[in-house]
Amino acid sequence: MSARSVRLARIAAGIFAMTAFTAPALAQSGADFYKGKRLSIYVGSTTGGGYDSYARHVARHIVRLLPGEPTAVVQNMPGGGGLKVANYLYAVAPKDGTAFGTLQRNLLTAPLLETRTEAAAYDPAKFNWLGSLNTETGVIIASTKAKVRTMDDLFKSELIVGSSGPSTDFLPLFLNNVIGTKFKIVQGYAGAVEAYLALERGEVEGRVSGGWTSDRQIVEPWYAKGQVRYLAVVSLKDSPYFPGVPLITDYAKSEEQKQVMQLILSSQLWGRPFVMPPDVPKARVEAMRQAFYALTKDKQFVAEAEKQKLDLELITGEEIDSILQKVYATPPQYVEVARKAIAE
């Protein structure tokens, strides 16, 4: 078992054990396909957010690393908190290897946890997962003008937070229903950027960030100026970004709450996952995976990521498959508690 797998296993203790990964050899029959092709990379959110930033960074560089050096275009397809893109990639997008995309991380467990199963018209196990370029950390952010000043206050007083769809609704909703926080969720913002602009204008008092990698570029300057506070880290592990800030799991009051929180927060392990549709020829999936994995060793890609403050920590497609298998094997009683917690 690799060191990375050991680390991931410790994070997700109580849910699943990670398995080691050995990268498959690049299938030459897939290598020749991409010459002269144009790739379409789909993003289930508006421009300017974290998923969009990673997708555009990948688009600029993966074409250099694929045999045949195709071109690539990013297409934003917001809707349903990313469901529109997930359903499109699953059932409509070309299955010849020219289409892939990045999905909001909670969509991988949506068919397991969501009661609105008709909206999630896809099977995560049938997708071809390329991997993720990062794992994620979330944080509860509150304006210094808000009545809520600490995490303990959030169990007594309401904090109004902005939402850009189901992918951001589910964390505050889950925390309300499982550990008793008092978030009031204001919906209708097109994306994370718009939700943060609402915070800056004073329309809302905070936000539950599920992805610090992108949000930090907006929030860190506010924190430095004393405009916001960090109430708790929404993760299964401590974060170097938030020294002294408590983990949300510290507020679990029972073993059941702890297990359910681990199930919900497991999605952070795969950060911002990239995926190809089902039924793409295996050789083309392997060619794309090898190019995707090579990104994190490409000096030009890494240098540009550092300038943009995009964290890089490769999670392979095979690792995502392994995590999903373990997550979908979670005991039914914990799944039912989690499902009810996010069902509103």
Helix content: 25-40%
What's the CATH H-level homologous superfamily of the largest domain?
Bordetella uptake gene, domain 1
The CATH topology of the largest domain is: D-Maltodextrin-Binding Protein, domain 2
> Judging from the principal axes of the Cα atoms, what is the shape?
globular
Largest sheet, spatial ordering of strands: 2-1-3-10-4-11
- The first-level CATH class name of the largest domain: Alpha Beta
What is the CATH architecture term of the largest domain?
3-Layer(aba) Sandwich
Detail the poorly predicted runs: 11-28
Helix-strand pattern? HHEHEHEHEEEHEHEHEHEHHEHH
Number of domains: 2
Quick check: average pLDDT?
Answer: 88
Question: Could you give the count of β-strands?
Answer: 11
User: How would you classify the helix and strand content by structural class?
Assistant: alpha/beta
Biggest pleated-sheet summary: 6 strands, mixed
| Percentage of β-strand residues | 15-25%
Ends apart, CA distance between termini: 40 Å
Radius of gyration: 20 Å
Counted by DSSP, the helix tally is 13
Q: Topology, pairings included?
A:
Blueprint: H1 3-11, H2 28-31, E1 38-43, H3 50-65, E2 71-76, H4 83-91, E3 99-102, H5 110-113, E4 128-132, E5 138-143, E6 159-162, H6 166-179, E7 183-186, H7 192-201, E8 206-209, H8 212-224, E9 228-234, H9 255-265, E10 273-276, H10 282-295, H11 299-307, E11 315-316, H12 317-327, H13 332-341
Parallel strand pairs: 1-2, 1-3, 6-7
Antiparallel strand pairs: 3-10, 4-10, 4-11, 5-8, 5-9
